[in-house]
Design goal:
2 copies of one chain form a homodimer. Chain A is 80% helix and 0% strand. Chain A is mainly α. Chain A has 2 domains: 49 residues, Arc Repressor Mutant, subunit A (Orthogonal Bundle), CATH 1.10.10; 146 residues, Tetracycline Repressor, domain 2, CATH 1.10.357.10. In chain A, helix 1 crosses helix 2, helix 1 packs across helix 6 and helix 6 crosses helix 7. The termini of chain A are far apart. The relative contact order of chain A is 0.07. Chain A binds a DNA duplex through helix 1, helix 2 and helix 3.
Chain lengths: 209, 209
DNA sequence: GCATCCTAATACACACCTGTATCTGAATAC
DNA sequence: GTATTCAGATACAGGTGTGTATTAGGATGC
């Protein structure tokens, strides 16, 4: 019971975080359209007024949710991407990070929901673009770094490889969540391995002719 | 004006097809949740009564829409997959079919919407599974056929390769529609080529050691 | 040509959501 | 300790949706 007395600002931030947490879970579960402002507020332990007081509305809150998630991921990403570390260490940490990110189904569902929204709504697409652009840059940096370390000419620009990689991941994950009987976890791994191994094996073969 | 006088059954079928066509376009554009029964009926030139008279409701109509699309794709698929034709001919026709299917954005959006729904709703997932299962079988058959003709051991089961292939396609397409500035058409092609070429090139290399 | 049947239109009852406007009570300032 | 400020609750007005029950009118059968 040593709960610290919160200042106004801290309290407000706590409210925002709780609302975002509730929205994360609910939207992942029911979808953005099926989730009402009331649902979110209630799940967070507030009333609708709290949402309108803290965000412009449901759409605004959703963007904020994506932004927060993106920032968190960026922070974790940056922590791994440290030039001082040996390449093997970076690779291993990156693999762990990827596994943990990939396991987060709620976030995945929300990003996919966002993609659908972006495909349909030009306004949202513009806001979404800023986030995706950064994310692409990060992954492309990682891809370029590894091809450079390997001393192999990449089969396409790092940006293109990065986007292909992300697309493959997202496609496999959505397939798995929507058709779990067809695409079991082991199949997903195998499918990813086929594509990834082909690329890396080919790169390795070409690096030592 | 030689419009044939329709029998009741023909008339009813026409109504159903028009409703499905309208739903196809509207749901692709606005999403399932944001499309009301009234929207669909009105776009098709009917009133809501027509929908409830022909389908169980919006959800039922959506499943029917997917089923119809699946059947059409199956028919086109079967037409190409003819053992009597030389392999090169099949390959070329398959490529054309794939390009035309891939270009159909409205259908793609609806299938992706269906995937999201399936990921969230167990009941829908079961109905969806039947369609996806068949589709996977078709593509897997195609994959197996080609590896067999090539005389190369596939790097994974045809089913797994098929699902990986489908996931990649869908992932790239969704990326392109949601982030058109990042993933332009040429990038999408390049990204697909990287993965596909790696696999086929590797297979070819291994077939002639 | 009349009775029947069936498709689709219309009317109704109910539920839900949004956004704004107003209010309340607790935190801050002096 | 009183006044002020602000986060969040509550009330309200308006709009939209669903599914069912009823109705109208053209197609079918005899």
């Amino acid at each position: 019971m040593t709960r610290k007395r919160l200042t106004r600002e801290e309290s407000r931030d706590q409210t925002r975080q709780r609302l975002l947490d509730a929205a994360l879970a609910l939207i992942a579960q029911k979808g953005l359209a099926a989730t009402s402002v009331e649902d979110i507020a209630e799940a967070a332990g507030y009333s609708r007024g709290a949402v309108y007081s803290n965000f412009g509305g449901k759409g605004d809150l959703f963007i904020e949710l994506l932004r927060r998630d993106h920032q968190q991921a960026t922070a974790e990403f940056d922590a791994v991407f440290d030039d001082a570390l040996p390449i093997a260490e970076i690779r291993e940490r990156m693999r762990e990070l990827y596994v943990s990110l990939y396991a987060d189904t709620a976030c995945f569902m929300n990003w996919t929901e966002a993609r659908m929204l972006a495909a349909r709504d030009a306004d949202f697409r513009d806001k979404f673009a800023a986030l995706i652009s950064e994310k692409c840059g990060q992954v492309a940096g990682y891809v370029g770094y590894f091809y450079q370390r390997l001393g192999v000419e990449p089969p396409a620009s790092p940006e293109v490889i990065a986007m292909g990689f992300m697309s493959l991941m997202e496609g496999v994950k959505l397939f798995m969540l929507s058709s779990p009987l067809e695409m079991r976890a082991q199949h997903a791994e195998a499918a990813l391995a086929v594509f990834m191994d082909s690329i890396t094996e080919l790169a390795t073969l070409k690096s030592t002719p």
